[in-house]
Design a protein that fits this description.
- There is one protein chain.
- By secondary structure, the protein is an alpha+beta fold.
- Helices cover about 35% and strands about 15% of the residues.
- The strands form 4 sheets. Strands 7-11-6-10-8-9 form a 6-stranded mixed beta sheet.
- Helix 10 links the parallel strand 8 and strand 9.
- Helix 6 runs antiparallel to helix 9 and helix 13 packs antiparallel against helix 14.
- It is globular.
- The relative contact order is 0.17.
Length: about 400
């Protein structure tokens, strides 16, 4: 697919060795090999205060591993100079105990990402589609989550909140952050009663409108022990309000295939950062075909109505408000439309936040200098790019 290839090359242009770059390092071999080597760009445009050419480090070697647990073993053995991706927070104590032996230190960066639940509003099953588009259903699921227990059992040092913008964001809303984020199983059950989800005769699970037991297939690609414990708890919480959930662990490629073919029903995921609507709007507005909670609505908007399903109701309002925001001059007018988008999210809870803003561990060899101890980890900031790695250097 030519369009997909162009999108790939433009987004990951730095991986294409034949494309001119302004980046500090450039690739020198095929990314599919077990080792991926970047060499300093001799034409890099930055120098330090003494006019020394940056970057200081000549080469970066990335080693491919089949299992992310290898990062933990390599780190405590002192075989990693710098790593923050796939370094598991649940292994913090293990990392600290081996700092001296591995000749490294552990930094606790701040993760701007989150854990969240979403439902596909355009799933082909009409009963589920109607249910998932009902905001009262999503609010009931949110109320059923005992977030304090999740954090206690998983030992996640994070904040219980909706998938709302973080406090440092220009779009921060305290009321959205707390909306339906308290644990209230009784209220959740009452809300499901009110929208007509009747119980089966044995009072174990609720019924679909066609009279069969309501079953929801939950897909996720989470792998750590803490995350899997969280999935088990969420299945239990939803069972407590009569929702039968079947959890399935899949890899990222398969999960994205299901999303692209509109086959996802419910997912627990992690990822997008809650920083700035104007920089990354796709989690919050159905303008692109990339988020499961927009289903085919995003494909409709992205294709200009040629594919997908036309958004209606508050889904349509999101797109309208976003278009108004894009046409408005910077300042109060844009802020007005951004705030209206925030209000719609608080009203609808399209993304059910579990927790966010936990620590993000980084392993750093003691010989490396000039690495900031505090960094906000966010994809839109291209972390570790915002830690300025072109200024890292090795001490003698």
């Amino acid at each position: 697919d030519t369009q997909a290839m162009l999108k790939q090359k433009l987004y990951y242009f730095w991986m294409e060795s034949d494309v001119p770059k302004l980046t500090a390092w450039i690739p020198t071999n095929d990314e599919n090999e077990n080792i991926y080597i970047l060499k300093r760009n001799p034409y890099y445009w930055k120098v330090d205060k003494e006019s020394n050419q940056l970057p200081y480090i000549d080469e970066i070697h990335y080693y491919r591993v089949e299992d992310t647990s290898a990062y933990t073993l390599k780190a405590i053995a002192g075989e990693i100079d710098f790593q923050f991706r796939s370094i598991k927070t649940e292994d913090y104590t293990l990392f600290k105990e081996n700092e001296k032996r591995g000749d490294y230190k552990v930094y606790q960066w701040q993760n701007a990402g989150n854990k969240f639940i979403v439902f596909n509003p355009t799933i082909e099953d009409p009963v589920l589609s109607d249910l998932y588009q009902n905001p009262e259903f999503r609010k009931a699921v949110s109320l059923a989550l005992n977030r304090d227990e999740i954090l206690e059992i998983t030992e996640a040092r994070a904040i219980n909140k909706q998938a709302s913008f973080v406090a440092d964001s220009p779009h921060y809303s305290k009321s959205w952050e707390k909306a339906y984020a308290m644990y209230d199983k009784e209220k959740a059950n009452a809300m499901l009663d009110e929208i007509g989800l009747k119980w089966a005769a044995d009072k174990k699970f609720r019924l679909r409108s066609d009279g069969s037991v309501l079953e929801i297939v939950l897909m996720h690609r989470l792998t750590t022990q803490a995350d899997l414990a969280m999935v088990e708890l969420i299945v239990k919480y939803m069972s407590d309000i009569g929702l039968k959930v079947l959890a399935k662990q899949v890899d990222r490629t398969y999960l994205e295939k299901l999303r692209d073919t509109n086959q996802l029903s419910m997912i627990i995921n992690e990822g997008f950062q809650e920083l700035n609507l104007l920089i990354d709007n796709k989690p919050y507005v159905p303008t692109r075909d990339e988020e499961a909670h927009w289903g085919l609505f995003g494909k409709y908007v992205e294709s200009g109505g040629k594919e997908g399903i036309k958004p209606a109701g508050d889904y349509s309002l999101l797109v309208e408000y976003w278009n108004n925001l894009m046409e408005a001059p910077m300042g109060p007018e844009q802020d007005k439309w951004a705030n209206m988008i925030v209000d719609l999210h608080e009203k609808n809870i399209w993304i059910i936040g579990i927790y966010s803003q936990g620590p993000k561990l980084a392993i750093l060899n003691n010989k490396i200098r000039n690495v900031p101890e505090r960094v906000l980890d966010a994809d839109i900031l291209r972390t570790p790019g915002n830690a300025k790695p072109w200024q890292f250097y090795y001490s003698n």
